[in-house]
Amino acid sequence: MAKTLELIFDFGSPNAYLTLKVLPELLDRTGADLIITPCLLGGIFKATGNKAPMIQYADAPAKMAYEHLEMQRFIAKHGLTKYRLNPHFPVNTLAIMRGAIVADDEGNLDDYVEAVNRAMWEDGLKMDDPEVIAAFLSANGFDGPALLARTQEPEIKAKLVANTEAAVARGVFGIPTFFVGEEMFFGKDRLAQVEEALGR
Question: What's the pTM value of the predicted model, to 2 decimals?
């Protein structure tokens, strides 16, 4: 059976974007398949008492500055020159994460994640505005209005909640989180450990 790497994912995390940019090479080296599990980061924070770094370290500017330095090192190491901090950050990702559940249901989650990540972290679009979301999706191979309409279906809403609750029950407190089997790893800086686990 092929090895699998599960990624607990929300578009609201710039580190999740950066992670997905470097994962293809890791997957090639390990022969692993990637499973993306859409969850709501805000729901994870609420359930676990965790906070976004910009809030968590608001009273520790040196810590926040170091977090920024580490991100810049990662970007430079991997040549991720298209990355831009979204000018509307933090963006409410509820609609686009429900959209990820729709895309998963329709069999095109990978394409959806790639496109919306680009909108969020390269193009700097306001991806909590329904008109912006619909227009972007329609310009990128999706039926934007139809997809957005499906985000209001009770089953779609319930699936995102269920995914989020299941992640919290497994010990997830932030994003990106990875699972190799039942072994959990948090953050893009753990990718070497993830690769080791996949190689065992």
Answer: 0.93
Domain range spanning residue 28?
3-199
The residues annotated with a catalytic role in the active site are: 13
Domain of 20, CATH number, reads: 3.40.30.10
Q: Encode the chain in three state secondary structure.
A: CCCEEEEEECCCCHHHHHHHHHHHHHHHHHCCEEEEEECCHHHHHHHHCCCCHHHHCCCCHHHHHHHHHHHHHHHHHHCCCCCCCCCCCCCCCHHHHHHHHHHHHCCCHHHHHHHHHHHHHCCCCCCCCHHHHHHHHHHCCCCHHHHHHHCCCHHHHHHHHHHHHHHHHCCCCCCCEEEECCEEEECHHHHHHHHHHHHC
pLDDT at 53 over 90: no
For the segment 10-38, what is each residue's pLDDT rounded down to a tens digit?
A: 999 999 999 999 999 999 999 999 999 99
Decide: 164 and 175 in contact? Cβ < 8 Å: no
- Domain count across the chain: 1
- Position 26 scores a pLDDT of 95
Main-chain dihedrals φ then ψ at residue 93, nearest 5 degrees: -95, 10
